[in-house]
Design goal:
4 helices, single chain, 56% helix, 108 residues
Length: 108
């Protein structure tokens, strides 16, 4: 994980946010590759895909932490049930977070 790159990227997100834009970040697409790679290693395809989805959760948590260090509230939202680290994605809830000036980070 390249923290300096994340800080630079979240600095750009802060610029957008400070300009009054609502920001949603979607992290994903790696699970298909991970699934294929996992199969090559002998893992069940679904298990490997879920591992990739959890990896997006880790990345989303890092982004949220950095953006919050810049003074902006963020919410990590997911379709996976992980209530200790992220909220369940519900469309209306995501829009409420945006209306409150929070950055929404979609993972999993």
């Amino acid at each position: 994980m390249d923290v300096q790159y994340i800080q630079k990227l979240m600095g750009q997100v802060k610029t957008l946010h400070d300009a009054g834009m609502q920001v949603v970040i979607v992290i994903g697409a790696g699970n298909i590759r991970r699934g294929v790679t996992g199969e090559e290693m002998g893992l069940d395809r679904a298990t490997a895909d879920y591992m990739g989805m959890v990896a997006t959760m880790i990345n989303g948590m890092a982004l949220a932490n950095v953006i919050e260090q810049l003074g902006i509230e963020a919410r990590v939202m997911t379709s996976l049930e992980m209530p200790k680290v992220a909220e369940q994605f519900i469309n209306k809830r995501a829009f409420k977070h945006l209306d409150k000036g929070r950055v929404v980070i979609c993972v999993g």
